[in-house]
Amino acid sequence: MRDAFIATLTEHARKNPRIALITGDLGFGVLTKYAEELPGQYVNAGVAEQNMTAIAAGMALSGWQTYTYSIANFTTLRCLEQIRNDVCYHDADVTVVSVGGGFSYGQLGMSHFATEDLAILRAIPNIRVVAPSEEWETQDLAAELAATPGPAYLRLDKGRGGIARREGEVARLGKARLVREGSDVTLVSIGAILKECIGAAAELEKSGISTRILSISSLKPFDEQSVLDAARETGGIITVEEHSVIGGLGGTVAETLLENGAQPGFFRRVGLKDQYPTVVGDQDYLRKAYGMDAASIAAIARAAL
Question: The whole model's pTM is what?
């Protein structure tokens, strides 16, 4: 996903000399071509992510369109005050780009996990919160963000959901993607953990369970109607996120259902419980360890049904 983002950003930056990419001493190799081609639109702020965000805000308020870039927890939690006070309060044209959402950097331990970012940034006014599941979605959404001024958070995963673009399909802010139709249960996922939902649906199909899958790439703005339709048309809803179950996708879906008077047959949240993840391993290993893999999702669906 990061390569798809950089390719899209480079294309736009060639056309717009006021676009600038600011990195927190990360991305060597990935960003080399961009930096060599557009040196006047590239800044390495060093291992000083709070300064990186403040620089981006100042440049944006001076007419630039800026992007900050680092590992997910460093661009967000370390810089939260700067995002809140400098960027969002002033409605500055800054896109916070994170690589390694969820357990992408699983071998590096809890300090490099991004499992609270969606909930925290969602609570800040003015900012759009985006987490694509595919490379092609990343391209579409990055292009739309570039054309829409204002604060944004773009969360990129190491993996991918695994569903290619269908003919005529375009990813849009505030629009969910119907990946699979079904009637017994709806799996609502965000980001590349969509892969596990697809595996769970295939497993459930063996038992005659019809599974709808909704992929959410835009948490804010949010496609309420797709979720409401799922609540009324299928037996129940399970949200799936490589993130805390508190305040992220699960919270957004629950709020949407209650505020609109939609009552699904059942509602479950799959994600990290109220705990610090202490296990170390690759992304697939950690999903299994914390009950977010296809088998775990399928078991939760069977029990709920």
Answer: 0.96
